[in-house]
Specification:
Helix content is 27%, strand content 26%. It is built from eight helices and 14 strands. Helix 2 links the parallel strand 4 and strand 5. Helix 7 (195-205) runs parallel beside helix 8. Bound molecules: zinc ion (2 copies).
């Protein structure tokens, strides 16, 4: 059976991805309502009941709001670090069936090896993931203000990368809805990656390994999918990395499922 990856949705107000292997079915973040996640899983013929676990990057609501409906009611194990668990339980007023890991640790969920690493973001103990499967290494890198050496090193072997292209700097600066303090937070070293910053990250990590790049976590007001796509594709072309396929993601609907045959 091929390994299948579906970005169920990604954007500033909700993030959730589904990964399926021979033995394992997991969500990476659960940032839509339980009902939305159920509907989006149903659209690919799956149910939350069959999940082996939910991995959490950090406690911001656009990554955890579905836990109210899913994690507790269905008793799906939630994999996260201690500070994230405490923050989630406090915020949502519930008890998780948690499987704790230390940031930087690696562990297995069935036949998926999970590498965790710290990312600079304004949460208690935010992490990124590299999920190693028989078919491919899949990196999750959303919600980070800048890419540290460690981050770059950890995702360098990714064949598939979900990378944040949060905002266009000019659209953010010109935005009328956000107060200056919020803009400053977003642009800070512990905020979010702009399109240009994401292109810099791609340039740093790209190798022959990287086949599929998903641009995620776009701000609805301060970015546009075509803009993010253009900036990153342009950079890939400039550096001659024509083998990397760039895909947009949407807040509103799942991306087509990526099937990864055994290598
Ligand atoms: Zn966040
Ligand atoms: Zn987020």
């Amino acid at each position: 059976m091929p390994v299948r990856l579906t970005i169920l949705g990604s954007g500033s107000s909700g993030n959730c991805a589904y990964l399926e292997t021979d033995e394992t079915r997991i969500l990476i973040d659960a940032g839509f309502s339980g009902r939305q996640i159920r509907q989006r899983l149903a659209s690919i013929g799956r149910t939350p009941e069959s999940l082996s676990g939910i991995l959490l990057t950090h406690e911001h609501s656009d990554h955890i709001q579905g836990l109210v409906g899913l994690g507790t009611r269905l008793q799906i194990p939630v994999y996260c670090n201690r500070l994230t668990k405490d923050a989630v339980e406090h915020q949502l007023k519930l008890r998780l069936d948690s499987r704790l890991f230390g940031t930087g640790a690696s562990f297995e969920i069935g036949d998926v090896s999970v590498d965790t690493f710290a990312v600079p973001h304004d949460a208690h103990d935010p992490v990124g993931f590299l999920l190693r499967t028989a078919a491919a290494n899949i990196g999750f890198l959303t919600d980070l203000g800048h890419a540290t050496k460690l981050v770059v090193e950890r995702v360098r072997s990714a064949n598939v990368l979900i990378l944040e292209t949060n905002h266009d700097l000019k659209l953010l600066q010109d935005d009328l809805k956000r107060p200056w303090s919020v803009k400053q937070r977003i642009m800070s070293r512990h905020g979010h990656l702009s399109n240009d910053a994401a292109a810099d990250v791609v340039e740093e990590i790209v190798s022959a390994n990287l086949r599929h790049l998903y641009l995620g976590h776009l701000s609805r007001d301060c970015n546009r999918p075509e803009l993010a796509h253009h900036v990153v594709s342009d950079r890939l072309r400039t550096i001659g990395a024509v083998h990397t396929q760039v895909n947009s993601t949407s807040q509103d609907s799942p991306s087509p499922t990526l099937e990864l045959p055994d290598r």
